[in-house]
Amino acid sequence: MSYLSDEEGYYGAFGGAYIPEILHRCVEDLKKAYLPIIGSPSFQHEYRRLLRDYVGRPSPLFPALRLSERYGAKIFLKREDLNHTGAHKINNSIGQILLARAMGKKRIIAETGAGQHGVATATVCALMGMECVVYMGATDVARQHVNVEKMKMLGASVVPVESGNKTLKDATNEAIRDWCCHPSDTFYIIGSTVGPHPYPDMVARLQSVISEEIRPQLKEHTGRDWPDYLIACIGGGSNAAGTIYHYIDDERVRILLGEAGGLGVESGKTAATIALGQVGILHGAKSYVIQDEDGQIVEPYSISAGLDYPGIGPMHANLALKGRAKVIPVNDDEAVAAAYELTRLEGIIPALESAHALALLGKTSFRPEDIVVLTVSGRGDKDIETYLNYHKQ
User: Mind telling me the catalytic residues?
Assistant: First the structure.
C-alpha cells in the first residue's frame, strides 16, 4: 500500500474530481496529458535547466546548530526561502507553465493567498511571455501589498476578490469561475495540492524536487539519507507534499505537520482543518473541510495568509486519518514566537507559514541523536509588517 495517489486521483477515501460539466473536458485533457508530458525527456531537460539556472536549485540543507542546541536534536533546515521569488511555489509554477505551453494554452490564471504563488506564476508568465491573471482576496491584497505590486510589475493583472472572507478560498472560487468561462485557451495553475485530480498529484510531483534533494544532502551531512522526523506547515499542503514525497512510504521517517490554529481551535477564529474538519467537497476534491452542521463552509482565520484556508489537500487528509502524519495546530502567537526565535538564533527571518512548522519544535520531545529536517517554505520579507504590528499589540 502506498500513501501516494492512485490512478483516479484518490488518496484512500480522499481526492477525485468533482467538477461542473463545463470543466469536464479541460480536466480530462489535463489528466491525459500531464504524466506523458512531465515524464518526457524534453520536459525534464527544460524543467531541470530552469530549476538550476533560474530558480537557483538545489536549495541548501542548512545545519541549524543553535536551534539544534535549543531543542536537543540534529536540526536541518531545507532552505526553500532562498529560491528565486522567495518560496517553494516557483518549483510548481515553472513545471505547470511548461505543461501549459506543451498543451498549446495561451492564457494563465492563478489564485493566491500570501501572494507567493501569485508572484511565482507572474514570474514564469513574464519569462514565457504569456498573459497572466491572478485572483487574490481583498483582505490578502491589503496585508500582502508588496507582493501585489511585484505581480503588477511583472505584468500580471491582479483581481481583488470582495466575496466571502476575501481570502484564499474566495480567490480560488473566482479563479474556477474564470476557468469555466474560458475553458479552451486558459490554463489554471493551482498553487497547492488541492483541487480536482490531477492537480494534487501533479503539484506534489513537481514539488517532490524538495525531498529528492534532501536525500543526497542529508547523506553528505550525516552519512545516511533519511531523517527521523520531517516537519512542514500545511494549508493546502504543497511544500509539505514536496518535503515528504520520497519518504512518504518509509515508516522509519515520522511526519509532523503544523496547521494554522489561529486564535485557538475552539475560538471560532481558526484554520485548523484536520482538528475541526469533516469530510466534504471543496474546490473539486473530497477532503476535510471546516463546515457547520448544514454543510456550509465556515470562514477560516489565520495570521498567515497562506494558511488561511478551510480545507486541506487530500494527500494530507489521508495521512492524518491513517495516522501516518501527526498534524498539530499552531496558534498565531506560537508561530510569531517561533519566527522571532529562528531570527535571533540563526539569522533567518521565515515566512509566517514556515513559522507554523518551526513552532512544532517546541511541541515535540526529541532524542539527542534524532535527525530532524524542517522545510522553511518561504522568507519573511512579505510578513515584516505583520510581525512588527503583532509585537506592538
Answer: 89, 111, 377
Q: Are 258 and 360 contacting, i.e. CB atoms less than 8 angstroms apart?
A: yes
Least confident of 166-170, 257-261, 366-370: 166-170
The total domain count for the chain is: 2
How far is 15 from 195, CA to CA, in rounded Å?
Answer: 8
Do the strands 278-282 and 371-376 form a parallel or antiparallel pair, or are they unpaired?
A: unpaired
Phi, psi of 32 (to 5 degrees): -75, -30
Q: Which domain holds residue 179?
A: 18-50+88-203
CA distances from 365 to 228, 265, 330, 342 (A): 12, 22, 16, 18
Together in a domain, 179 and 234: no
In a domain, 292, yes or no: yes
Task: Output phi, psi for 384, to 5 deg.
Answer: -55, -45
pTM of the model: 0.97
Q: Please write the tens of the pLDDT for every residue from 343-373.
A: 999 999 999 999 999 999 999 999 999 999 9
